[in-house]
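lol ok so funny story. i was supposed to be doing the assay writeup but got distracted and ended up predicting the structure for this chain instead. priorities right. anyway since i did it might as well share w the group, maybe its usefull for someone
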Amino acid sequence: MSNSFLHLSVGGFTERVAARTPAPGGGAVAAVTAASAAALVAMAARFADAPAGPAEALRARLEPLADADAAAYTEVLAAYRLPKDDPTRPSRVAAALAVATEVPREVAAAAREVALLADDLVERGNKNLVGDARVAALLARAAADAATALVEINEAAARR
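and the output, tada:
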């Protein structure tokens, strides 16, 4: 069985998030939240006889970013744990922070796209699924905001 967060139950994933481990954390949760929003958009699109493909493509793009974020943050921690006198430490920290910044940047961009698809379904979709489309929009925007905050935090750390 894979170690991917995608193969865990919802309860299993939230237990991993709640554990006293640095990852998965906010970035993985933002990615899973955005992927869940994309799944809601795909469902609402199908009930509206609209194309679900764009939402499914975004979901496929977002799902692996949960694992990628956790892996990236693990690398940041490993780089920070290097001895301060290690000549490779500054470059390893910088490289790790660059990756740890790029993953949430990707999450934010994809989540914003999900929100736009959801907005369209709120306006033009099946009226019985307006609530699902609206929840998708709210979740996608929250995920985008969270991921953007992580980008800003990691960029600030890179400048130190």
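The chain is about 80% helix and 0% strand. The first helix runs from residue 10 to 18.
back to the writeup now i swear
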